[in-house]
Task: inverse folding
């Protein structure tokens, strides 16, 4: 008897329809509800904007950019760390009819030049510490205009733009037009430009706003990189709720904890590597984090044990979410006021559908079984810039996004992510999920971070190998042979580690995703040196 196909799983209905507005018009419309309330501040407290000030600066900056030559359809690249200025300039460029592409501030000049060329950028915004790199990249890519958040020779300053007295540019208000052009992380290949329309981002903000309890009394820490679509969309979601947003340029333990305590942060969304720090680092106990109501991890699967430890230690809700650049920010989240299930990335967002598809047969799987997760909803991207074949491989003709992630949905609607399909290790015909081994290794008291890759093996095809970072107190004391024996007692024979390698750091993207492609190259080079 053939098992009937499982139906798509629906998230809750959207309470309100997605407004047919461009992103800056939508945010400014919300900002005008609370003109005197504080909207944005940097963690150091040096720059602060009320909602009224944010609305005003977006308009003035849009006029300044237009006067400087930015035209509808142009691309402005943002290459700087999280700051209130990032939000102002990006929304201003969108209000002027341009599209915005965030760039990693850690990029080399060559990497940045590649993005500038691929995006067709005419303008780039940066900060003084990155100016030399950006100048070099802009020269190579023939990018005509530089904007800096302070005065710098040969560049426009943000103050120059804000001082513009001309009228705001009148541009077409097309909600379906491209708005954001973030680039994929490149964990499994060459980064690709992801075209997100105004409607897609506005839709995801509406979905996230319905699923969270953020409001005018919330203080939200913007730690996830805003140059990525996830960080920017979550920041805009907080602003659409009337919350106060505190920007932090990067994760540094002391500055991070100080920001949480000083600003009485109520809600923080962080990358997965921050969670083990919150769970076990003794520094955490020295700060008053009593205002925290929710800490959420977004970017990669988080072991259930770590999630539970953070919740117990901080005395607040600890949850996970799941999203992709191709979906603006979110696809799943643990809704506020509902139960959280450790190890799960939450429930399907409002207005979103999910399928669990067997990669071999293409058949939809029932709840509780694993398969590739597919999603459909108004937040999905239009396609990859200039890459129709890659678009067709990811987005089906009827609008389903193939995530490339192995996972499932349980009977209660909680979504679980196992790992990337292309990261599974085939050991004598049996699949090993690296994330499951990593979760086990992170329960070892001497392990601070772990990554598992497949190493080619003549007999087995491949064998799992672990790269490990020892906790500070265990450096020099972690016995890899003992750890291999410890893990072997806890897994099936085909899952047993062939090797364990101690390293100082493990390559990750700014959002916390493991760069297993980099680790595999390092492992191959290491074996070649030893041969």
Result:
């Amino acid at each position: 008897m053939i098992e009937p196909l499982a139906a798509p799983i629906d998230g809750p209905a959207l309470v309100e329809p997605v407004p047919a507005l461009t992103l800056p018009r939508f945010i400014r419309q919300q900002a005008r509800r609370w003109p005197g309330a504080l909207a944005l501040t940097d963690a150091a407290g040096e720059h602060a904007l009320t909602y009224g000030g944010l609305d005003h600066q977006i308009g003035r900056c849009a006029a300044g950019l237009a006067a400087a030559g930015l035209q509808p359809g142009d691309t402005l690249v943002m290459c700087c760390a999280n700051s209130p200025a990032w939000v102002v300039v990006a929304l201003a460029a969108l209000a002027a009819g341009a599209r915005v592409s965030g760039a990693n501030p850690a990029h080399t000049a060559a990497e940045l030049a590649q993005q500038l060329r691929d995006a067709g950028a005419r303008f780039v915004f940066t900060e003084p510490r990155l100016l030399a790199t950006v100048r070099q990249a802009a020269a190579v890519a023939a990018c005509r205009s530089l904007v800096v958040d302070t005065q710098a020779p040969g560049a426009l300053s943000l103050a120059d733009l804000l001082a513009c007295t001309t009228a705001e540019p009148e541009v077409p208000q097309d909600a379906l037009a491209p708005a954001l052009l973030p680039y994929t992380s490149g964990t499994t290949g060459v980064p690709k430009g992801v075209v997100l329309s105004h409607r897609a981002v506005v839709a995801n903000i509406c979905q996230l706003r319905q699923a969270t309890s953020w409001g005018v009394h919330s203080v939200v820490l913007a730690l996830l990189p805003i140059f990525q679509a996830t960080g920017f969309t979550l920041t805009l979601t907080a602003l659409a709720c009337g919350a106060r947003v505190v920007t932090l340029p990067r994760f540094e333990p002391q500055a991070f904890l100080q920001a949480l305590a000083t600003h009485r942060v109520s809600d923080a969304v962080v990358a997965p590597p921050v969670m083990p720090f919150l769970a076990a680092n003794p520094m955490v106990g020295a700060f008053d984090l009593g205002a925290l109501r929710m800490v959420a991890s977004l970017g990669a699967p988080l072991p259930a044990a770590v999630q539970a430890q953070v919740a117990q230690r901080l005395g607040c809700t600890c949850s996970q979410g799941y999203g992709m650049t191709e979906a603006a920010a979110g696809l799943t989240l643990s809704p506020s006021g509902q139960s959280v299930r450790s190890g799960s990335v939450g429930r399907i967002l409002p207005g979103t559908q999910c399928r669990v598809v067997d990669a071999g047969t293409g058949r939809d799987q029932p709840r509780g079984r694993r398969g590739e997760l597919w999603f459909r909803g108004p937040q999905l991207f239009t396609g990859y810039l200039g890459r129709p074949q890659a678009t067709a491989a990811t987005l089906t003709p009827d609008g389903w996004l193939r995530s490339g992630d192995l996972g499932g949905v349980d009977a209660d609607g909680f979504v679980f992510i196992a790992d990337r399909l292309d990261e599974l290790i085939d050991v004598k015909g049996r699949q090993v999920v690296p994330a499951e081994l990593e979760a086990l290794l992170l329960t070892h008291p001497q392990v601070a971070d772990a990554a598992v890759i497949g190493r080619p093996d003549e007999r087995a095809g491949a064998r799992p190998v672990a790269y490990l970072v020892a906790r500070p107190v265990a450096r020099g004391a972690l016995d890899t042979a003992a750890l291999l024996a410890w893990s072997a007692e806890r897994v099936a024979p085909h899952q047993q580690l062939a090797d364990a390698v101690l390293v100082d750091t493990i390559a990750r993207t700014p959002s916390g995703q493991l760069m297993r492609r980099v680790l595999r190259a390092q492992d191959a080079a290491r074996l070649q040196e030893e041969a």
About this structure: The chain has two domains: 23-409, 424-530. The longest strand covers residues 447-457. The chain is about 30% helix and 25% strand. The chain has a mean pLDDT of 91.
